[in-house]
Amino acid sequence: MTSSAFASACARRLFSNWFTEDHAPGAFYTVSSPDGILAEGDFGRYDDHGNRPRHDTAFRIASCTKSFTAAAILMLRDRGLLSLDDDMAGFVPELVVTRRAGHQPVLTIRMLLTMAGGLGTDDAWADRQESLSNSEFRNMLAAGIRFVSTPGTRFEYSNLGYALLGQVIEAVTGTPFRQVIHSELLGPLALTSTGFDVDVRARGGIATGFRRSANRWQPEPFSRPGAFSPIGGVFSTAADLSRWGQWLSGGFSESADETAVLSRASRREMQQSHRLTGSTTNSMPTTSTWAPQGYGYGLVVHLHPRHGPIISHSGGYPGFGSHMRWHPSSGLAIIALANATYANVAHPAAKTLEILLEDHPSDASRFQLEELWSETRTARTDVEALVKKWDDGLAARILADNARLDEPLERRRERLAELLEETGPVMASSDSLPDSSFSASPAHLRWTIPAERGKLECEIRLHPLNPPKIQMMRFATHPQNSSVC
């Protein structure tokens, strides 16, 4: 089965199962790679007239909006117009924070970007504040806000913090927040079906949001754009949001074009874990046991034990649920949109991407982010020699002292023989790295060797001394026909 066919079958099955449980009246998903769309699927209806959603139907993306807000802040930082460690009081003079006596912490832009501003989780309240005018918001701030923790000390998901970042953008540019996003991000990136109100130009129509009431799906009125639009006010299509995710993911690819919008370095910075999320919020996807999970700038960072960083964000709003997720090393991405209040599309989206990465390593590892040390390449050759014919002398020469203490050579030899009983003899390998290879650093390599009844996965990591030796060597089996989708 080709990658495109597998992606289509896998995603369709998972989302079909999700939709049959009646989570939403309608939904649409898109699976993509840097080369284009791999799979798309529509379910149900996007409005009261029974029209089916399409890749160009606009849904509210809710908190996925925060990635646009964060990108705008970094753009202004890169232009020298602000510092991420600036005190918020310099941008929003009405901001009055109730503090304990003798306790005067500074609230910075960086703290709000990373959900570490000491503000409490506020989804239920904040999602109903979008239409506040700037004057109403400023009056609210002047009346005082409260911390639930000392700013800068821990993660807690705060929409209010991102509404405040919208005020920073307006204070620095002298331009309304929504206009800045349109002129500086949406226009230059040709996201023509993305905007902040129902007038957005989406050929596939504007999805109506629904809420379940009296066991029926009832239409949910749209909120108008306002001071809280930076937290979740964007309307977008699966097609546009896929381009947005691919552009952000492109920050990790040396072949990606630089743009005047935001440098690759700043896009990568958005997708670094700046604050561990812990368990203080239910706003993030809970479908995976991967650890640790952190918050970057408007994006969530999952560190998968096999595939490395995976970037995501979920959105929940009155009438809508959304999820976007991508694997920077491969460029594989999935966007899922639904028209029901807080519809949890994160579950089928996360599962789809995980299965694609597990079952199609050639797709998952096409882009090598690190140039391997020559010693790493040599170590790969030596390890393959051990696999074909174990030699205690060779093993002793290439392994660091800790490796022999961690697991004696005799046990390593026995364990490898047990795995080869499962896979059968390995076949000849080429000098070039196989497509399934993955490298997390110049000193690390994971690759597979084809065998009679599957594949043998090999992984090594070299220590930092000169000359570097193998500090970790691991083998595992990959039987044939391992698809679980």
Task: Characterise the protein shown here.
With 485 residues, this protein is α+β, with helices and mostly antiparallel strands. It is built from 16 helices and 17 strands. The protein has an 8-stranded antiparallel β-sheet with strand order 2-1-14-13-12-11-10-9, with helices on both faces. A hairpin with a 2-residue loop joins strand 15 and strand 16. Helix 1 runs antiparallel to helix 11. The protein starts with a helix and ends in a 6-residue tail after the last strand.
N- and C-termini, Cα separation: 12 Å
List segments where confidence is low: pLDDT < 50 over at least 5 consecutive residues: 279-291, 362-369
**Structural class by SSE content:** alpha+beta
Helix content: 25-40%
Largest sheet: 8 strands, antiparallel
The Rg value, from CA coordinates, equals 25 Å
Question: Kindly state the mean pLDDT as a whole number?
Answer: 89
Tertiary shape: globular
Number of helices: 16
- In total, how many beta strands? 17
Kindly estimate the percentage of residues that lie in beta strands according to DSSP.
15-25%
User: Strand order of the main beta sheet, please?
Assistant: 2-1-14-13-12-11-10-9
